[in-house]
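Inputs:
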Amino acid sequence: MSSLEERAVQAAGFADERLGVAKFTRKSLNKIFPDHWSFMLGEIALYSFVVLIFTGIFLTFFFVPSTQQVIYHGSYAPLRGQRMSEAYASTLNISFNVRAGLVMRQIHHWAADVFIAAIVVHLLRIFFTGAFRRPRELNWMIGTLLLILAIVNGFIGYSLPDDLISGTGIRIAFSILLSIPVVGSYLAFFIFGSNFPGTSIIPRFYILHVLILPAIIAALIGAHLAIMWHQKHTQYPGPGRTERNVVGIPFWPAYALQAGGFFFITAAVLAALGGLVQINPIWLYGPYVPYKVSYAVQPDWYMGWLDGALRLMPSWETVFGPTIGGHMIPNVFFPAVLLPGITFGLIFAWPWIERAFTRDRSEHNLCDRPRERPIRTSVGVGVVVFYVVLFLASATDVLANTFETSLNLVLWTLRILLFVLPILSGFVTYLLVKEIEHLPAVGTPKAGVEIRRTIEGNFELSGLGREAAGEKAAELPEEVAYHQRTTNGHAEIYDAPELGLGERAVPVEGGLS
Amino acid sequence: MKFKHAMGAGVFVAAATMLTAVTAAILPRNPQLVSSAAPVPSGAKQVVVYTNPPARLIPEGQALFAEDCETCHGPQAQGSSRAPNLQGLGAATVDFWVSTGRMPLADPTQQAFEKPPVLNHTQQLAVSAYVASLAPGGPAIPSVNLGAANISRGESLFSEDCAACHTITGVGDALANNVYAPSLYPATPTQIAEAIRTGPGNMPRFGPGTLSNQEVGDIVRYVTYLQHPNDRGGLGLGHVGPVAEGFVAILIGLGSLVVVGYWIGGRAG
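Outputs:
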């Protein structure tokens, strides 16, 4: 009998002879990934999605997606004997009677909130570093699509328990659909299967939430990663880094272990939130009944900007009475349909919008530093501030109550700030960026300093600073230069003009230590 | 045989009709809430009992009224340009305003807010007794027997009648034009019942034609529950809903992960 190792080698040989996997595997394991903390924001989103899948599967075992009315006889006394949908009753059951049900629900909900937050921050990183430029426009669009789908699926999942607050959210969604001129009522009735509330929406939302949208999201994440793998990750400029190479850590073992560890940390943070901080205590909200409403309910944070836009929108309907082809345009249409349409339209089109101004059609594999692009950076800051104000506007009542001031004052303040703050912050950003644009010292890594004690007992500063290392590195060939600068040096060179063609991994000899 | 059948059928139909009528007469409107809505048998303890404060407190109340209230409400509580007429509003109205510290009022242009009461408990009763003695009408001071109330019925009524301003968790919120619905967390059962029955400030009054005493007791029961709800699931975030949750998700959830990423990932250069 051969040993275990021999058998493993035999099996690998078997697979390689038939599938030719050895070359692919070797190439994959040696794939170089630039190592920077800001490149890990998308990873947070990815790992949150994995947590969402696992906790979500658990929840499907106990959730009943039905609007069938039942009398609650469960263990939560303040609702016992009330009529409610099976969806709500089963969510109560998950929260009170299913072992680990509540913690799974809470992890799922926190993971959703963090998932979308990570996507947004990831998107901002890509934007401010110009990583959306050729050749990465497609991946930028896929990422934007993922953001939209994540928001939609988050809203749908938030609606499934059929509690008073989420039911109010569905009611608002129905009205938003109705506000679309001409097709609105057809669209709303098509989606809801009847007038609001009907009995179809919870089961329909359910199948969208647990199967259709997650499948599309998973497929798009796969495409997103595959394109990133093929195009290679961008990197920040630095010694030894060019548009035609990738300097970083190899997939195996350094990157894989770092990423794997980060997955467990993400899962741990989400689990800690789920176990320690209450989220969406639906039992305090009661079952959804169409004629009941709680004052000033908010949606989850990622819908906050839309809710805020609805709150800030003045009543044009009564003042101007805008129409299109004889059809009135309801007030809701502008903040709830037009605004997100323009928002995501601009995000999708941004790579081409920017190109129209810069006339820059060349490929970019090195990230910009935000200070090198004053206009893009200040436009981005202004736009972000615009949405932050909208987000705050979804909490007008909470702000007024917290600061003990008039709701109307808060509303008008935010209406003005919505236009003033973006312009102001964009302008200030522009000035600041212009100031630091040409300062060589900004952003330079801190120099490592070694203090030695000499044999006489004096202290001596030895010059191991980055500048010294940089000077030394500049004299050396590229790969070696990198080896000089890291303990785990690999450089990947592409020698073909087109990206991805003829690439070869060139591990630096002795680079691993 | 046929006749017998017909007669049997007739008797059955009649009996069924009578039974239905009797059942309909006995059963309340909402069948699932039979236990709570059933009429309270005489002799059993009432859910809400209204008692006027003892008459012997009236002279003390008159003196306190002259001291603290008369400037605005007038010597006979008949009201003035600054303050409403209190005659005929009953002891419960006065007791609510003074026991929650809203009266005496510092600034008549602002909505009165809850503060530590100026008058002690006996003094509160005395002022209430004095005002109630001026004119008939208005509810006396209610006391609620929480044990006889139905919490589930209370939840249903609360979400129907109260949540639209006080929010579904009872935490209170800012309404339009500087008016706000106060938090219900500091309220005592008597104060909750008083507020329901007398409608202080902008709040509507829920009279006996709108809510029965049993229903008032049920709501009071649920509000006292909301003051200490089943807060399982960890740290409650003040019951203000997704706003606080969003901040936690972004600042603590994502924030800590970015810090960890910064820790394990590469830095500049």
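Remarks. The two ends of chain A are 37 Å apart (CA to CA). Residues 450-512 of chain A form one domain.
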